[in-house]
Design brief:
Elements (H helix, E strand, L loop, with lengths): L4 E3 L10 H5 L2 H5 L8 E3 L2 H13 L3 H15 L8 H14 L3 H17 L5 H11 L9 H10 L18 H12 L6
Antiparallel strand pairs: 1-2
């Protein structure tokens, strides 16, 4: 199991001036990358981190800073919901779909929206073509699937196909090229 990491980014806690806090900062700003700028999310490592930060702060402000850092960085065992949060995010990742599948689902939705619209169909199909179709060039499956549906090349009737005649000739040609393009097998 991977050990959780806390990413540290310099900050100025409430109630401290930049000059007061900057005494600790010079040691931290010399760290180069995220790996060197991270600490393990264990109670011991966090306490060491807090002690290093607090050591450079004036005495009258140390306790307040230590208390604030502990409250924000150390998990209260009685209120620890990290396992539930981890399960939530893991379930979310499992339930997610690939970008290719998402693109196909979105293309099907937009095709159905344009093709089956009872009102303002011409405006809908024009908007779908202008604002959605040509914005997914990095994923050829989405525009191809959508263009084929709008042009009835997928074998299904699309009432909006006749409205595509009102697009300028360059857009119609590009739409036809997208619909008939051969996409590489992955």
């Amino acid at each position: 199991m991977l050990e959780p990491i806390i990413q540290f980014s310099p900050f100025i806690p409430w109630g401290f001036t930049f000059d007061e806090f900057s005494k600790a900062y010079p040691r931290l700003k010399d760290l180069k990358g995220p790996k060197e700028n991270s600490i393990s999310a264990t109670p011991e490592a966090i306490e060491i981190f807090i002690a290093q930060i607090v050591a450079e702060v004036p005495d009258q402000k140390k306790r307040a800073l230590r208390d604030r850092l502990r409250a924000r960085l150390i998990v209260d065992i009685q209120n620890d919901d990290t396992a539930a949060l981890a399960k939530f995010w893991k379930d979310c990742a499992v339930a997610s779909v690939s970008s290719t599948k998402y693109g196909q689902q979105l293309a099907t939705f937009l095709r159905d929206l344009a093709c089956n619209a009872r009102n303002n169909r011409k405006a809908i199909v024009t908007g779908v073509v202008r604002f959605r179709l040509f914005s997914w060039r990095d994923q050829p499956d989405f525009p191809r699937h959508l263009a084929r549906g709008l042009l009835e090349l997928d074998g299904q009737h699309c009432a909006a196909a006749k409205d595509l005649k009102d697009l300028d000739e360059a857009k119609r040609e590009e739409l036809a090229a997208i619909a008939t393009a051969v996409t590489p097998v992955r």
